[in-house]
Design goal:
155 residues; Nucleotidyltransferase, domain 5; 5-stranded mixed beta sheet; two-stranded parallel sheet; 3 helices
Length: 155
Amino acid sequence: MAKFGKKKKGMPAVNTAALPDIVFMLLFFFMVTTVMRETELKILTPKLPSADQVKKLEKKSLVSYIYVGKAKDGTPGDKIQLNDRISSIDEIRSFIYAERAQRSEAEIPLLTTSIKADSESSVGTITDIKLELRDVNALKVNYSTVKGSAMDNIK
């Protein structure tokens, strides 16, 4: 009689046929869901003031940002940045109208204007911005702050 030897069966090889499909699916997912920075700051990064009571914004897609601070090139005075350029107080009106034109009629009452002002900014500049916003009936105004004690702002 013939002797038949038992063959050792090892672990089967891992099937990698679906691996490229998975990699491309993940790549496509991250390309679609990643949000790039919308605005490049032309002013120095504002050092936001501290506040005791802060509230997080619900829908950030309905927020228009106005940045106030010192210019990167060192020119004196407060600078206002709307979208990607340094602007003046007079251009806030057209900025708000352009933001409203991009939205549907139902979203316009929900629009919020957020002022990201440096803690060293002049109160007069902030007041001028508020008056201009009042003139165009943009009454939902948010002041961006960091959470902390209000005493942190006093020097």
